[in-house]
Design goal:
The structure is a single chain. By secondary structure, the protein is α+β, with helices and mostly antiparallel strands. The protein has two domains: 5-90, Immunoglobulin-like (Sandwich); 98-279, Glucose Permease (Domain IIA), CATH 2.70.70. The protein contains four helices and 21 strands. Strands 9, 12, 14, 15, 16, 18, 20 and 21 form an eight-stranded antiparallel sheet that branches. The protein is globular, with a radius of gyration of 22 Å. It binds zinc ion (ZN). Zinc ion binds next to loops.
Length: 280
């Protein structure tokens, strides 16, 4: 008789944990490169592929899937009552724009030592800003475009030079004239504001909390300093072509800590926003 009891308990527990799945709300696209915002019962412990994720007092949290993320991901939720739920997440594979560029001379291919050392220093600063953890709950807001206009570059695209793959493009580029206003896509704290980085020129990072940040590259003017708080829609900078840019545009990036994500996964399509603007 006593041998039967543990089996009965286990089957009740699995039924309950199955019902508990209604307790997790996941908002986002289940594709590579996406940022997911989620909500659980406060006090729940959350793990993505066994790594713990910070959850705020309201039960909100965020996580991302990298450009080449594995298509099978596993979310583990340990509810306050001790029940554990395993929630497999199946991602859609994305096709990225790949452009082959051949016949480039060896001289151009060779990296310049000054550029290398300056960009290494810049990367360290950027990495430090994206490592920070802040308590802000702004990450869970509905984001807006920092600027509207023609999209001139997309996330994930890559050039292959003489057969050698270059670094993929991790931002969304919006073409605009130098001096066009850039606004904060959500509330946050400025975690980096530098006017002259080697590749990215005028560079700003807004920390939206819980590892979620926005970066803006090639800016001509930066209105806010590090440590300053901003609200969604606040004017923070002006578009430029500073650093290594071929023309004026805003390069907007979204990160979850060091993970580079596609900003277009958290805002309405540019087409729909521009149509709305035209109708008003
Ligand atoms: Zn760009």
């Amino acid at each position: 008789m006593s041998k039967v009891i543990p089996i009965v308990i286990a089957s009740i527990a699995s039924m309950l944990s199955f019902q508990a799945s209604a307790q997790v709300e996941l908002k986002g696209n289940f594709t590579q490169g996406s940022l997911i915002r989620a909500k659980v019962q406060p006090g729940t412990l959350v793990y993505l592929n066994d790594a713990p994720i910070d959850v705020n007092a309201e039960g909100q949290f965020a996580f991302g899937f990298a450009r080449e993320a594995e298509l099978e991901q596993l979310l583990k939720l340990v509810y306050p009552d001790g029940l554990t739920e395993l929630k497999p997440l199946n991602l859609a594979k994305r096709e990225y724009k790949i452009q082959k560029v051949n016949g480039i001379s060896k001289k151009i291919m060779k990296p310049d030592p000054t550029a290398l050392s300056r960009s290494a220093q810049d990367s360290k600063q950027v990495k430090a800003a994206r490592t920070q953890f802040t308590e802000s709950n702004a990450f869970s807001q509905t984001f807006i475009w920092p600027l509207t206009g023609r999209i001139s570059g997309v996330y994930g695209s890559q050039r292959v030079y003489n057969g050698k793959p270059g670094t993929p493009h991790y931002g969304v580029d919006v073409a605009a004239k130098t001096g066009t206003i850039v606004v904060a896509p959500a509330d946050g704290i400025i975690s980096l504001s530098v006017s002259d980085m080697f590749y990215s020129g005028g560079t700003m990072i807004i920390d939206h909390g819980y590892g979620v940040s926005s970066s803006f590259l090639h800016l001509s003017k930066l209105y806010v300093k590090e440590g300053q708080e901003v609200k969604q829609g606040d004017k923070v900078a002006e578009v430029g072509a500073t650093g290594r840019a071929t023309g004026p545009h805003l390069d907007w990036r979204v990160n979850w800590y060091q993970m580079r994500l596609d900003p277009t996964t958290i805002v309405p399509s540019m087409k729909s926003v521009l149509e709305k603007q035209a109708a008003n």
